[in-house]
Design brief:
- The structure is a single chain.
- This protein is of the alpha/beta class.
- It folds into 2 domains: 257 residues, Aldehyde Dehydrogenase, Chain A, domain 1 (3-Layer(aba) Sandwich); 178 residues, Aldehyde Dehydrogenase, Chain A, domain 2, CATH 3.40.309.10.
- 40% of the residues lie in helices and 20% in strands.
- The strands form 5 sheets. Strands 12-15-16-11-10-17-18 form a 7-stranded mixed sheet, sandwiched between helices.
- Helix 9 links the parallel strand 10 and strand 11.
- It starts with a strand and ends with a strand.
- The protein binds NADP nicotinamide-adenine-dinucleotide phosphate.
- NADP nicotinamide-adenine-dinucleotide phosphate binds next to helix 7 and helix 8.
Length: 459
């Protein structure tokens, strides 16, 4: 009998389903099947690959409620954000279907060099091979889609290891892709803990690439273990925003609250550090706390729920310990701060210091801090003072300040008049510094997932 993993409903704690746990031999066979499927699937014409992806997008939309409920239960994500995640994945597959048809190379003017005179040069983009994909718990559908859809659009095959806590949505996606016409073996799924199944997958010499989304610690381990493979890493962040008095900062309050607490703050571009100019700080804070009091916290399946449980009680305990530590160091709880099991109340801190964990590490919890500043230059310096570099936001109507921020901030994405949480699925997305290597966003992931083959013709 194969060992089974219990997948829990993160709100009720009840067992939702049991899934087979992969052993080392299962991982090896899954890679073998994906390799065999690659020999066939990589030869498919673009229109046929696009058709599968287009059909998968349609099937996702037809089964939206069923899939959203699975996300809601296995991840504890509030219903409205679970439904939004399905909408985004529908688009991600649609973008991939479109991009499959425009995957192309370019001619190269070889005669720009005297040595190249008389020759014709062009390059093709060819599929890279088997892609090993490892995904986190917080977007069990759309972050899987950001790996699977572009890989399949290029003609690659995939072995996916979803987070052990949230594997059910990826199993549903696999069924949908098979129904859409994907050949068997083109998407294999192996389930089990990162330290075993993840390591076996990363260390196997057959995948040509590892695409990973998760924590910086694991990302760094992967770079040491993967050997000669292409690697892309989408890692953490401690997202920040600056609110200048010249901006529509009153209009920004609700957006900032959503950015900090949606999905219980378990979003890589969640808003964690809020820098507010001293002239507006008192009123902004008052409005922010008032908006927080309207958040509905609890059962994520309720249609009006804003904040559900965290992925586990252990994670909520860890976040609460960070709050307690900050308070011991002089921080003040402006709202929230209490915990019931895996539910941590949305929490806002003031009087924080830059080296407190709640500021300098990734909270990945419904936890944000307000910092009051007096000078824009100083606020930019504080926002930049982080090992992370995923996305940041600046609210200002002063074009000079916006341009200064764009020039100085070392982040993969800079949002003017928005928080770091903005993302649509076709834009280049990824981080600098400890936030990652490479980019996702369908077309950009496809560039990472293809090889360039240079062709030179001598008449
Ligand atoms: P995690 O603990 O790093 O896990 C991510 C995935 O890696 C899971 O599937 C996990 O498996 C697996 N894993 C763990 N150890 C491994 C190892 N030694 N070798 C191979 N795989 C291993 O992260 P998480 O807690 O699920 O997600 C939170 C993190 O993801 C945060 O840091 C967040 O910022 C980041 N994130 C980044 C982005 C982005 O686009 N930049 C998006 C979302 C999340 P198991 O869990 O099954 O053990």
């Amino acid at each position: 009998m194969k060992k089974k993993i219990e997948v829990l409903d993160k709100f009720s704690g009840k067992v939702l389903d049991r899934v087979p746990q992969a052993g080392e031999a299962d991982v090896r066979s899954a890679i073998g099947r994906a390799q065999k499927a690659f020999a066939v699937y990589s030869q498919w014409p673009a229109h046929k690959r696009a058709q599968v992806l287009e059909t998968a997008s349609r099937l996702l939309s037809e089964r939206k409620d069923e899939i959203a409920l699975t996300i809601c239960r296995e991840a504890g994500k509030a219903w409205k954000y679970s439904a939004l995640e399905v909408d985004r994945a529908i688009e991600t597959f649609k973008f991939a279907a479109e991009e499959a048809k425009r995957l192309h190379g370019e001619t190269v003017p070889l005669d720009a060099s005297t040595g190249g005179e008389g020759r014709l040069g062009f390059y093709l983009r060819t599929p890279i091979g088997v892609v090993a994909a490892i995904s986190p718990f917080n977007y069990p559908l759309n972050l899987v889609a950001h790996k699977v859809a572009p890989a399949l659009a290029c003609g690659n095959t995939v072995v996916l290891k979803p987070a052990t806590t949230t594997p059910l949505t990826s199993l549903l996606l696999q069924k949908i892709l098979l129904e859409a016409g994907l050949p068997a073996g083109a998407l294999e799924i192996v389930i089990g803990s990162g330290s075993t199944v993840g390591t076996w997958l990363v260390c196997d010499s057959r995948p040509a690439m590892v695409t990973f989304t998760g924590s910086p610690t694991v990302g760094e381990q992967i770079t040491r273990l993967a050997g000669l493979k292409k690697i892309t890493l989408e890692l953490g962040n401690n997202g920040g925003v600056i609110l200048e008095p010249d901006s529509d900062w009153k209009g920004a309050v609700d957006r900032c609250v959503m950015s900090a607490f949606a999905n219980s703050g378990q979003v890589c571009i969640s808003l964690q550090r809020i820098y507010v100019h001293k002239s507006i700080a008192a009123e902004f804070t008052e409005r922010f706390v008032k908006a927080m009091s309207r958040l509905k916290v609890g059962d994520p399946t309720q249609k009006d729920c804003d904040v559900g449980p965290m992925i586990s009680e252990d994670e909520a305990v860890r976040a609460q310990a960070w709050i307690d530590e900050a308070v011991r160091g002089g921080a003040k709880i402006l709202a929230g701060g209490k915990r019931r099991g895996a539910i941590l109340e949305p929490t806002l801190l003031g009087r924080v210091k830059p080296r407190m964990k709640v500021m300098c590490q990734e909270a990945f919890a419904p936890l944000a801090s307000i910092v009051v500043y007096s000078d824009f230059d100083e606020a930019l310096r504080q926002l930049s003072d982080t090992v992370y570099g995923l996305q940041a936001g600046i609210y200002t109507r002063d074009i000079g300040k916006a341009l200064e921020a764009i020039k100085r901030l070392d982040f993969g994405g800079i949002m003017i008049n928005d928080t770091p949480v903005f993302r649509v699925d076709h834009m280049p997305y990824g981080g600098n510094k400890c936030s990652g290597l490479g980019r996702e966003g369908v077309r950009f992931a496809m560039e990472e997932m293809t090889n360039l083959r240079m062709v030179v013709i001598k008449p």
